[in-house]
Every structure is written in structure tokens, then in C-alpha cells.
Specification:
Layout lengths: L1 H19 L9 H22 L4 H14 L3 H34 L4 E6 L2 E6 L8 E4 L8 E7 L1 E4 L1 H4 L5 E3 L4 E2 L4 E4 L2 E7 L5 H14 L3 H28 L2 H10 L3 H19 L3 E3 L2 H7 L4 E5 H5 E12 L5 H12 L5 H12 L7 E7 L3 E6 L2 E6 L1 H6 L8 H9 L3 E7 L2 E12 L3 H10 L4 E5 L4 H11 L3 E3 L4 H13 L4 E5 L5 H6 L2 E5 L5 H6 L2 E3 L5 H37 L4 H20 L4 H5 L23 E3 L3
Parallel strand pairs: 11-18, 11-20, 12-23, 18-19, 20-21, 21-22
Antiparallel strand pairs: 1-2, 3-9, 4-7, 4-9, 5-6, 5-8, 10-22, 12-17, 13-14, 14-15, 15-16, 16-17
Helix pairs in contact: 1-2, 1-4, 2-3, 2-4, 3-4, 3-8, 4-6, 4-9, 4-22, 7-8, 7-9, 8-21, 8-22, 9-21, 9-22, 10-21, 12-13, 16-21, 21-22
């Protein structure tokens, strides 16, 4: 507010000076010199004294003092005012860019409603510990990272993940601190509190992002150490050759590198802030620059291009059994197991609203399957070897089993009363947005896209084909993934690595820029990466690449604009064709132009998301339906 008032008074003084000249023997332009020039001079002297470093403020101060000394008070005031306007616009751009992140920190509530001694009581958030049961009512913010134990509600996660619509939360679902319960009451078991919550991690990433500087910015900071003496030497030389003091002072004014200094940091900070509003955490300016130069992207498979969890993809039935009968029998037993295969089968039964009966005499056969009684009938669910050991023939489904295994799917056989009833196939399904993401990346100029996975060749190629990836490296251990990243770097590529697991951390660290799928990924992967996606939406990889490309374009535009205008102004000043007033206006207006050009980045993804090029939907693995979600049914009479 004080800055605005100072600039307003300074501007009024310059306007009066321009219209009427000195009043009562005093030039109103001095208001601009004192109100805007003094803070700049103070900053220059402070940096010189405390850090023994010359920056651009030194040259600006020299130009203001020199112009005032030769009676060009209007020019001095103009330099001071427009420089102050440029600094204010820079601060405003940075403030806008980081506001989304700062607002996130403020979303954390100060208290929580906790169950203690059988009663609900409100306590300070600092008193909540992992394992506490919390009650969150409609309209309240969730105070911890935890898991829903009772109740159901819609949760607005926009502040954290960028998702535009509320997400339905049921018992077993994970919730995050700072998100808002829009309707329904939930009882939540606290899993992470204090510094371990998602918001605390985001805050640390924000601090890193704001503190780190991009290499180009550091170069320009160092440039001021030689540009100041160079400008002074040129001004002295021109004065010695022409004897024109005004011409020499004009050179000092137009030589100021303000626009060049602003060119990179304003674009970088605007880009980082824009990404944050869309659930993308960029840890440094260097990361944003590097992702804008990426021409090779390596993807982990599980949890990145795929959803990272098994889902039922097909049900083969025999004789009089229906697909629902086979699924119901399997779910009756598997509902007692915590195995990923069991959870997938139970989820499929719930999805189809099947009435799953209870099972008795449930027995786990490690590494093979499970058995028990369902409606008084002996049921077995397990792999092919388990069926053979139980004396059950599976030859009728051997061909189907071999085909699905070759496609990288997991097959589970179901037997009832000593006879084979059917088979369920499961696979880690490709994310629906993966194919579109790969297509967009190629459109943006990423020429080399590969998938790294520990899966066998058949499963890897099946997933790669659905996602649109042509280069596949299968059966890769963490060390092999790391080596592939190194090989691409040695071949001259700017390499990006996308992953989510602990096994991806070495490759994420070795890449020029590592991108971690933060929501479903591990903390180690997030810490090893340079960019963290706060959702499991892989399409944000294409968004951040496009944002990086645009940021580099804006930086280049800024550098070209400022350099061309600066060089032209210096030549005009040396020739005597430009005076201090015109030089001050032209040079400092360039700084304002650069900041305004960078400010376009603040809303870039908002606009570009509407222009996404549509790509063909992912093909179903079992038919040509185009949905990727139908179930295979094989009938055997």
C-alpha cells in the first residue's frame, strides 16, 4: 500500500513538472527522485556494504544522481519512478505466482474434534497423534492425513490436487489435511500428523522452490559486477570524445540491465506458481528450465502409465455357470484375504452388485490359493498348480489361460465340488489418459519416449501397445533403470524420468529432471524428484512439459526484447540522438514490458488445457469396444 502511494505521489509530481515546469522555483519531479530513488539507493548501498557485491541498483543510483547533478531532474525522477514500477510489478508477479501455495498452508485448521475417553472433544491440532479417531462434519476442513473408518462424504481436494470436482470418500479411502468435507460426516483415523502430513511436505517443497535460483538468473546477477564499470567507462569515454555531459549521463541511464535481470526470474516464478495451482510442485527454477528442454522421457509402468493395482479384466465360465456365478464363488472366499488378487476380485463383485455369500472353514494355502465352504459346497480358488495338486483338470481352459498369460495377465482358477467352474483374469490396467498423454508429448516435440518395467516382455509390450509407447525395456531392476537414464544422457538427450516407487528413485535422481507421481507414490520417490505431481493424473506430465516449453519461450522473448532495445538505446545515446528523459523512459519501459510478458505465464495452463488435441481412446484388450473395461466371457458346454 505504501509503495502504491509513493508511486502515485511521484507520478503526480512528474506530471505537474511536465505540464508546468518548476513551481515557485522548485521542480515537482524531485518528489519522484526522493520517494522512488532513495529506496533504490538504500538497497544499492546496503548490498555493497553488507555483501560487497555490485548489483544493478548501483548503476540505477548512479544514473539518477548523475541526471540530477546536471539539472535533468525530470529524467532522474522518471528513471526512479519507472524502476520502482518495474520492481513493484516483479513483486506482484512473484506474489501472484506463489499465492496459491501460501493459501494452501493457511488451509490447515488449528483444532480437531477427537474421540477421547468415549467422548468427542475439541483439542489443539498439535495434541493430535497418529491413531486418534477424529470426527469431521460437513463444511469443515480435514485436520490430518488419515483413513476414513466410518461415514461417507464428498471431499473438495482442489487446493491440494487441482481436481475440479469433489471426490467421494468411503470407509477405507485416504483423506488429506487441508481438504474440505462438503457434505456428510466422517470418522477418520489419523495416520500422519504435524510435519509428516502432505501439506507439511508441500510447504517444504514450496520453500525450496522459492529459495533456489535458475542458472540464467545467477549469470545475470553476476553480470552486474562488470556491467557497472563498463557503463561508467563508456560514459567517460564518450564525454572525453564529445565533451557532452548530457550524452554521457544518457548512456548511464540506458545502460541499466534491469530488464535483463528481470527476464528469467519473473518467468520462472510465474511458471512455478501456475503449476502449483494445477497440483504440480516444481522444486526449482532449474527443474522448470530443464523440463522445457526435455527431448527424451522414460516412464515407469506400474503406478505411472498403469493404475498400479490389479483389476478383473475377464471371466471365463464353464457349463451351466454364469460369469456372475464364477465371480460370486471366488469373492466369497477372497473377501477373507488381504492379497491384492483377492481385493481385486472382491472389488469386481461389489462393482457388479453381486450378493456375495459368507464362507466357512476358510484356509489359506501360501503361494497357491485359498479354500473353504460356500453354501455348503467345497470351493477352491488359486493358480493352475494348486488345481492340479487338488486333482482338478484344467485342460478345458488351457488355451485361454496361455493366451491371457502371454498378454501379461494373471489367471485365477475356480473349482466347485471337485470340478473346474471357471477362470478369472486380472491385470494392472492402463490409465485411460496414458495414450492421450503420450500423443501430446510427441506433439510437443519429445521424440524419444520409452517404458521401463520389471514385468516380463509379454506384459510390458501389452501395456506399451495400449499406451502408445514404442520403446520398451522389460525385466528391469532399479540399477538397470538407472543405467538406461545414464545411457540416454551420454547419447546427448535431455532426459526426463517419470516414476512413483522406491525402485524409481535412482533413475529419478540420475535424470536431468525427475517427475514423481506424488499421490500414489512413495515419499522417497517424491524427495528424489525435481517435480512432484500431487495427483495420479499422468496427463499432468504433458502439462508440465508444455509449461516448461512455454516458460523457455517467454525467457527467450524477454532476453531478445531487453537486449535489442538496450543496444539500440546505447547507440542512439552515443550518437546524441537520445536525451536523458527519452532514454529513461525507453529503458525502464522495457523492464515493465518484460514483467508483463512474464505475467502471461500465471494463467497459461488454464488457457492451454482447453486446447488439448484429442487422441484416440485406449483400445480394449479383449475386444474392439474402445472402453478398456469390458469383461471377457468364454463359454464351454
Amino acid at each position: 500500500m505504501l509503495e502504491k502511494m509513493s508511486m502515485g505521489v511521484a507520478g503526480a509530481g512528474l506530471l505537474v513538472s511536465w505540464l508546468y515546469g518548476p513551481l515557485y522555483g522548485w521542480d515537482p519531479a524531485w518528489l519522484a527522485v526522493w520517494l522512488c530513488g532513495v529506496p533504490i539507493a538504500y538497497a544499492a548501498v546496503t548490498e555493497l556494504w553488507n555483501e560487497r557485491r555490485i548489483n544493478s541498483d548501483v548503476l540505477v543510483t548512479t544514473a539518477i544522481v548523475a541526471a540530477a547533478a546536471i539539472g535533468e531532474v525530470f529524467a532522474a525522477g522518471e528513471v526512479a519512478l519507472i524502476m520502482m514500477v518495474g520492481m513493484w510489478l516483479e513483486h506482484r508477479t512473484v506474489a501472484k505466482a506463489s499465492s496459491a501455495l501460501e493459501e494452501m498452508v493457511q488451509l490447515v485448521p488449528e483444532t480437531a474434534r477427537v474421540r477421547r475417553d468415549g467422548e468427542w472433544m475439541e483439542v489443539a491440532l498439535s495434541e493430535v497423534v497418529a491413531g486418534d479417531l477424529l470426527l469431521v462434519k460437513p463444511g469443515e476442513k480435514i485436520p490430518v492425513d488419515g483413513v476414513v473408518r466410518n461415514g461417507q462424504a464428498s471431499v473438495n481436494q482442489a487446493a491440494l490436487t487441482g481436481e475440479s470436482l469433489p471426490v467421494e470418500k468411503r470407509p477405507g479411502d485416504e483423506v488429506f489435511v487441508g481438504t474440505t468435507n462438503t457434505n456428510g460426516a466422517m470418522e477418520i483415523e489419523a495416520k500422519r500428523v504435524g510435519d509428516e502430513t502432505t501439506f507439511a511436505k508441500v510447504t517444504r517443497l514450496v520453500a525450496e522452490a522459492l529459495e533456489r535460483k535458475a542458472p540464467v538468473q545467477r549469470v545475470l546477477d553476476r553480470w552486474a559486477a562488470w556491467i557497472v564499470p563498463s557503463s561508467l567507462a563508456l560514459a567517460v569515454l564518450v564525454y572525453a570524445m564529445t565533451g557532452d555531459l548530457v550524452r554521457a549521463v544518457t548512456i548511464l541511464i540506458v545502460f541499466c540491465p534491469c530488464a535483463l535481470v528481470l527476464a528469467t526470474p519473473t518467468a520462472i516464478m510465474a511458471g512455478i506458481g501456475n503449476a502449483a495451482k494445477h497440483g504440480i510442485l516444481i522444486k526449482s527454477g532449474l527443474a522448470l528450465e530443464q523440463v522445457g528442454l526435455v527431448n527424451a522421457l522414460l516412464f515407469d509402468k506400474t503406478g505411472t502409465l498403469t493404475e498400479g493395482k490389479l483389476q478383473v479384466t475377464g471371466v471365463a465360465r464353464l457349463r451351466h455357470q454364469t460369469a456372475d456365478d464364477v465371480l460370486r464363488l471366488a469373492a466369497a472366499l477372497e473377501q477373507h484375504s488381504e492379497h491384492p488378487v483377492a481385493q481385486a476380485i472382491v472389488s469386481a463383485a461389489k462393482l457388479r452388485d453381486l450378493d456375495v455369500p459368507d464362507a466357512s472353514q476358510f484356509v489359506v494355502h501360501p503361494g497357491s490359493g485359498v479354500s473353504g465352504l460356500v453354501d455348503g459346497r467345497q470351493v477352491l480358488v488359486g493358480n493352475r498348480r494348486f488345481m492340479r495338486e487338488a486333482g482338478i483338470e484344467v485342460n478345458e481352459l488351457d488355451a485361454t489361460w496361455a493366451e491371457q498369460e502371454q498378454a501379461g495377465q494373471t489367471a485365477v482358477f475356480i473349482a466347485c465340488e471337485g470340478r473346474l467352474a471357471g477362470m478369472i483374469t486380472l491385470a494392472d490396467r492402463v490409465r485411460m489418459e496414458s495414450r492421450e498423454t503420450i500423443g501430446r508429448l510427441r506433439l510437443y516435440g519429445v521424440g524419444e519416449i520409452a517404458m521401463l518395467t520389471g514385468d516380463n516382455r509379454g506384459a510390458a509390450e501389452q501395456i506399451a501397445g495400449q499406451a502408445g509407447v514404442t520403446t520398451v525395456y522389460a525385466e528391469q531392476f532399479p540399477e538397470a533403470k538407472y543405467q538406461h537414464v545414464r545411457e540416454y544422457r551420454e547419447r546427448g538427450f535431455v532426459v526426463g524420468m517419470v516414476g512413483d516407487g522406491i525402485n524409481d528413485a535412482p533413475a529419478l535422481s540420475a535424470a536431468h529432471v525427475g517427475i514423481a507421481m506424488g499421490a500414489g507414490g512413495t515419499q522417497i520417490a517424491a524427495e528424489a524428484a525435481d517435480i512432484v505431481l500431487l495427483t495420479d493424473d499422468v496427463s499432468k506430465v504433458a502439462d508440465v512439459v508444455r509449461l516448461g516449453r512455454k516458460t523457455m519461450q517467454v525467457i527467450r522473448e524477454n532476453l531478445i526484447i531487453s537486449t535489442v532495445i538496450n543496444v539500440g538505446a546505447i547507440l542512439l545515446a552515443m550518437a546524441g540522438w537520445m536525451g536523458p528523459v527519452a532514454g529513461a523512459f525507453l529503458h525502464n519501459a522495457t523492464s515493465v514490458l518484460v514483467v508483463l510478458n512474464s505475467a502471461r505465464m500465471i494463467h497459461y495452463l488454464n488457457r492451454s488445457s482447453k486446447d488439448k488435441t484429442p487422441f484416440p481412446p485406449m483400445a480394449c484388450t479383449n475386444c474392439s469396444c474402445g472402453t478398456g473395461s469390458c469383461q471377457l466371457t468364454v463359454s464351454k458346454s
